[in-house]
């Protein structure tokens, strides 16, 4: 399940109103934690460059808008990671900075099932965030 975050929506409000200095959400990160909610600002246990497993935060391979209810009401981020080591991926998030454990997190989600990765494995993450009135 994907959860929108309070910090992410605050950043989106800046985009919509042209206030502050909003930064686009173009990065996907994966990690080994679980259980985040709307108040979280980072993944529970992000996989870092220093882990040397090829699963560090990266620019999404495809960023687009798609239709859930009406045309272009949903942001979509897709990226394929290729492991160079061993890790179990259990969470993913969308961020507006390339810096690990930094930036605003727009959405976060737990993977079900988790992905036990070994060198050479690929994992494609697709995350979507619909913008709509309640």
Radius of gyration: 15 Å
Fraction in helix: under 10%
Distance between the termini: 18 Å
Coarse shape: globular
Helix/sheet category: mainly beta
Largest beta-sheet details: 5 strands, antiparallel
Strand order, largest beta sheet: 1-7-6-2-3
Question: What is the H/E order?
Answer: EHEEEEEEE
Q: Strand content of the residues, in percent?
A: 35-45%
DSSP helical segment count: 1
Q: If you had to describe this structure to a student in words, what would you say it looks like?
A:
By secondary structure, the chain is mostly beta strands. Helix content is 9%, strand content 41%. It is built from one helix and eight strands, in the order E-H-E-E-E-E-E-E-E. The longest helix is centred in the first third of the chain and has 12 residues, at 6-17. The relative contact order is 0.28.
Keywords, please?
134 residues, mainly beta, five-stranded antiparallel sheet, three-stranded antiparallel sheet, 1 helix, 8 strands, globular
In short:
It contains 1 helix and 8 strands; from the N terminus they run βαβββββββ. Strand 4 and strand 5 form a beta hairpin. The protein is globular.
